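User: Run a structure prediction on this.
Assistant: Running it now.
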Amino acid sequence: MKTTNLIEQVQSALSAARVPGWLFYGFHSNDPIGISILGFGPTYHATRRWFYLVPAQGEPIKLVHRIESGMLDHLPGHKLVYLRWQELRSHLEQLLASAKEVAMQYSPESAVPYVSKVDAGTVELVRACGAEVVSSADLVQQFETRWTTEQADQHRATAAILTAIVKQAFRQGAADLSEKGASSELEIQRFMQRRFEEEGLICDSPPIVAVNGNAGNPHYSPSESSYAALRKGDFLLIDLWAKPVGADAVYADITWTAFYGRTVSEQITEVFDVVRRARDRGVEFLKQSTQSGCYPQGWEVDDAVREVIRAAGYADKFCHRTGHSLGREVHGNGVNFDNLETHDTRSFLPGVACTIEPGIYLDDFGVRSEINVHFGVNGPEVTTPPQTSLLVFDV
């Protein structure tokens, strides 16, 4: 995005939010969010403090150190230069004179730690210079996590490939059991990694492949030195995420489960059904909320999903948030559906994408069912084919 267009869009967002200004602050690499939004290139290197104020109206103002006076030259605005720390403070007071309230990458009491990038001392300094600090959390979403039409289309294509790969992986496990009597988490993980390479997909870490009790650990993953065999009568969970190569490519992220045997236990059937209903309740809640003109906050979605699991008697077995932001990183900078680990007050806004992935984790097995939801032009859309029933392989 051209910087002039960026500033216009930031000012439009500030006016809509009724916030007088957005104050960006950099020191070394303290704020990757600001670095990304302001379009710093890969050679970004800041050894001195800088500030950049984008007011809701008027010309932006830069504050840079004399040694790195060109730090913000790619951005429009009037430049102030400091050398001594006393000048930093006096210039900051001047910069903030017209904006008595500014958004920063800050969250009160670090309630949303994903956006809390500015240190407490800097917040104190800004306040001492005459401005109140509010959170930029929802502003960040508009510039960091909204997908373009091209990104949404690419994501859907990736989701279709991942769905095909996960089904192939389950079938590969069944073939191994039929031919050899056994397979392993590591073999199935390697199979999917080969398929990623064939499809031109990349990911930040290998897929989760978890047998029986390992599936009861939400972040378990096999390794060369530690993995379990897959045999007849076993339960298998696979969680995989990937994207194509490209600076603007976005992730798809899904989780499916299967059973290898003739008879599935009543408990596995029950738990899968509870998780599926909780997942679908999340989609229903999003659609109902947005159709009534509301943008639900992350904690509200989490509560709606978690209530289904609580009512079924498994509240203490659902030990993570309902879903996470999805974008160029598999865990993006947008709203998480969370009222467990954090009280996420960010809104689910048009253009944003998130996972819905409730889970119930027991000693012998764990069920998670993960889909992706994108807030498109027609409202919240499930972009990944949902698993509607447990896959069963009579081996």
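The first strand starts at residue 21 and ends at 26.
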